[in-house]
Write a structure and sequence with these properties.
Layout lengths: L2 H35 L4 E5 L5 E4 L1 H7 L3 H4 L11 H15 L4 E8 L5 E12 L5 E10 L1 H29 L4 E5 L5 E4 L1 H7 L3 H4 L13 H14 L3 E8 L5 E12 L5 E10 L1 H59 L4 H31 L7 E5 H19 L3 E5 L4 E5 H18 L5 E8 L2 E8 L31 H11 L3 E7 L3 E9 L6
Parallel strand pairs: 12-14
Antiparallel strand pairs: 1-2, 1-5, 3-4, 4-5, 6-7, 6-10, 8-9, 9-10, 11-13, 14-15, 15-17, 16-17
The structure holds adenosine-5'-diphosphate.
Adenosine-5'-diphosphate binds next to helix 12 and helix 13.
Length: 527
């Protein structure tokens, strides 16, 4: 083969090798294109001189260039700003030493699109272990960076506002605190620590439970956990223990601070001391209840009083009408005056009953006004009781009661004769009403240096729950329907005996009878 034919054959061989290489290259380029087009990430290749060998369509689009315009150019020729040209030059040099290089930076495209990108440059080794090219991928992280920045901004704003809040909350008269969304309390104001006498270490998280009343705690926890899970504001009143271990009531309000994402960022809570208001409210309620009770008692009394007054009035009216008729018939027949006298006696009894009722009412008014005037004198108590018994003998006998008297002599008391009579008379009238017609024992003696009067019956008796109240105004142990009475006699008696420096007490068993005991100071010997 001559030299010319040798040259021709090697040229042909080279051409065919070139075509094979070109087809191989185009094949690889198609693969690269397919990969590049299938991902939003940018993919590219550099030669050892930092020039692009390949650029994926997504990056070309950002640049606004065709592949032909980009291939063979470096960052500087593609219009990158000098600082990025310099950065990427260093990074590519580093990749050429065999390292994988990671980077991230902002970049403004020729069309003015500002973005944030993170990327990796990876060395690609040839057959002879020499680095042939550098492959790179870039991811657009603009959204993530913006979200991070926004979060940081919010956090910064919040930290600033939280610091302000803490400052403000420390000056508040209320107790205040801040909790995480899960309810973990991480800050309390100064007032909280002052009031509870606790330390931050004791209180952190859920330590606040220690200053709660264990009886109230379960319902507080239940409501607070419900608020945490629903995000609803919390409002409740409950007691909190103070540094001196006493409890005071607080109104607690907790409001969620919403985050930009719609969740909860923090809970801000305040506890306002409402103990005094609560106490005042309770007292007001009690006063209201007492006033209502007083009105009820008064109304009941008025209805009983009118009934009590009407009964003798009606009888009086009847008796007087009867008397009148008898008088008329007496005139006509000039008959004996006995019937008339009887009828007039009955009228006088009704008048006496009316007078007694009115006297009782007047006495109550005197006592309320502090105008019960006593005329003290030395009185033979036995003698006084005998006179009152004599006066009531008829009434007691009419009721069926026999009378047993045990009256010690020489028992003298310093007292108001008329008023003491009134007290004993009331006890005997009560025996006639409540003694069930059974015997009555009446005694006078000296006991522990006092003059003692006892009236014992075996009648209906009084239940223990009424022993204290029957001495109060308008209080009765029986229904007004059963036995008439105003419920004033024992009240007036107690006031009279108290004014004497004495005592009146009852000892009674329901259904078995009652003993009323009066003790008043003895008269001094000189008297
Ligand atoms: P009154 O007899 O007008 O009701 P009192 O003040 O004298 O008023 O008595 C108060 C209440 O005490 C009576 O309503 C009655 O229930 C009870 N009581 C008083 N004395 C007796 C007694 N000897 N036995 C049973 N109950 C009595």
């Amino acid at each position: 083969m001559n030299r010319r034919s040798e040259d021709t054959s090697s040229l042909a061989e080279m051409k065919s090798r070139y075509r094979a290489l070109e087809s191989d290259y185009k094949h690889q380029l198609r693969i690269l294109h397919a990969i590049g087009a299938s991902s939003p990430d940018f993919t590219y290749l550099f030669d050892r001189d930092h020039r692009f060998l390949y650029v994926s369509p997504s990056l070309l689009k950002l640049w606004g260039r065709s592949l032909d315009e980009a291939v063979g150019k470096n960052f500087e020729e593609l219009g990158y700003p000098p600082e990025l040209v310099e950065l990427h030059r260093r990074q590519l040099d580093e990749a050429l030493t065999g390292k994988t290089v990671f980077g991230a930076n902002a970049y403004i495209s020729p069309k003015g699109v500002e973005g944030h990108y993170e990327y990796t440059f990876v060395p690609v080794f040839g057959h002879d272990s020499r680095i042939e090219t550098i492959a790179g991928t870039t991811r657009d992280i603009t959204k993530r960076v913006k979200a991070d920045r926004e979060r940081a901004r919010v956090l910064q704003r919040l930290t600033g506002s939280e610091a302000q809040f803490r400052h403000f909350a420390d000056a508040m008269p209320q107790l205040a605190w801040i909790a995480r969304p899960d309810g973990f309390i991480y800050w309390y104001n100064k007032r909280w620590y002052e009031y509870t006498g606790t330390t931050p270490a004791q209180m952190e998280g859920w330590g606040w439970q220690n200053v709660h009343d264990p009886r109230e705690l379960p319902r507080v926890l239940e409501r607070w956990k419900a608020s945490i899970s629903t995000g609803e504001p919390f409002e409740m009143t409950f007691p909190l223990r103070s540094a001196d271990h006493s409890f005071r009531w607080f109104l607690t309000r907790v409001n969620p601070v919403p985050s930009n994402q719609g969740g909860i960022l923090r809970w801000f809570g305040t506890n306002t001391d409402i103990d005094a208001e609560r106490q005042a409210l309770k007292e007001r309620d009690a006063a209201l209840a007492a006033a209502e009770e007083a009105v009820r008692i008064r109304d009941e009394f008025l209805s009983i009083a009118s009934h009590e007054l009407r009964t003798p009035l009606t009888s009086l009216k009847l008796q007087l009408q009867l008397s009148r008729r008898k008088m008329e018939s007496q005139e006509l027949c000039a008959g004996p005056p006995d019937a008339l006298a009887k009828s007039l006696d009955a009228s006088v009894r009704q008048v006496a009953r009316l007078t007694a009722l009115v006297e009782d009412l007047l006495d109550v008014t005197r006592i309320s006004a502090g105008r019960l005037v006593l005329k003290f004198e030395s009185v033979d108590v036995g003698q006084l009781v005998r006179e009152v018994v004599d006066h009531h003998r008829e009434q007691l006998q009419a009721a069926g009661s026999t009378i047993e008297l045990r009256l010690a002599s020489f028992v003298r008391a310093e007292c108001d004769h008329f008023r003491l009579e009134q007290v004993v008379a009331n006890l005997l009238s009560n025996v006639a009403k409540y003694g069930s017609g059974k015997p009555v024992e009446i005694s006078v003696d000296e006991h522990s240096g006092k003059a003692r009067i006892r009236v014992r019956d075996f009648g209906i008796g009084i239940g223990p729950e009424k022993h204290g109240t029957i001495f109060e105004r308008f209080e009765r142990a029986v229904s007004s329907k059963n036995i008439s009475g105003l419920g004033l006699g024992l009240y007036i008696s107690r006031e009279i005996i108290n004014a004497h420096g004495g005592t009146i007490a009852v000892n009674s068993v329901l259904g078995e009878g009652s003993t009323f005991t009066i003790e008043i100071p003895m008269a001094s010997l000189a008297a």
